[in-house]
Specification:
Layout: H1 3-11, H2 13-45, E1 47-48, E2 57-58, H3 62-69, H4 71-104, H5 110-118, H6 124-131
Antiparallel strand pairs: 1-2
Amino acid sequence: MLQSDVAIFKNDKKLRLFLAVCVVPAIALLVYVVVIPTYNVFSMSLFNQTALSSVRTFAGLDNYRYLLQDEYFLQALGNTCWLMAVVPVATLFLALVLAAIITQSGLREKSFTGLSCSCPACCQQRSSVCCGPSFTTPTWAF
């Protein structure tokens, strides 16, 4: 950011108001949807309580100790971590390879192919040409 941009931002109250109006709802939604439920789940995990009883006994970290000793939980945790590490890398690699193949190909339609595969909802005519008439031909037509 240039020095003049910082000076414009500090002096322009309309710009600051516009940015606040854009950012505050997003932060409020993030807090409402992510932060508050995460806090509630963590606080609930510190108690022993069944769904049908109203008695809550404080367990502290005993629930976590129990989980770390359960072999099924550890297996599921390991599988989840492995999937989190491998699937995004494999997907990105496959996408880059396919993009390179399409880009390096001598096809006339390479820009058409990229556009129709990247946004079929926006380009229904192009996706219907690629994928067949099943998108545009209703099955209920007489």
